[in-house]
Design a protein that fits this description.
This protein starts with a helix and ends with a strand. The chain is 33% helix and 46% strand. Strands 1, 2, 3, 4 and 5 form a 5-stranded mixed sheet that branches. The protein is globular, with a radius of gyration of 17 Å. Helix 2 packs across helix 3. The chain contains 4 helices and 5 strands, in the order H-H-H-E-E-H-E-E-E.
Length: 184
Amino acid sequence: MQSTRRIVLAAGLGLMAGLGPLAAEAASRAGLTADGQRALQKLEATESKARFLARHARAILVFPHMLKAGFVFGGQTGDGVLLEGGRATGFYNLSGGSWGLQVGGQTFGFALFFMTASSLRYLRDSGGFSVGSGPSIVVVNKGGGAELDTTTITQDVYAIPFNQKGLMADLTLQGTKITRIHPD
């Protein structure tokens, strides 16, 4: 039993360690901005809810290339750009660790639509935030039945994952942190 725990712990730590270099290799400001703008344009072209949210958002934080992997222990990471009026106004890293029943790996993108001045102010003043503290975040499910309009937008931040590739099956307890970064 003890050796099984060690093997599982070593495998999980190995997967998380493999994510470390990716987090440390922040893209350049210009590259991250171009990738973020391109990813948002593609998302808006294929998803009507994203198009609607983008028209009404104060700012959009786009993480064009996220990586998530795990085997009991796991992690996810990626760098993003904060866009206001289509212009980059800040750069952030989204990272998180998890443990629980999980296996696999995937890449994906993630867009956070900041709908209120207070949620955007919180992001800036805190240098980021931990998901679950600060502004309320609602994940918008592609193909979900509810329509968005100016009377139903009541939350601080809406999140839309996109471009999922790979296979990740999980039932996890996870913590995600968004932190301001300063790429070259």
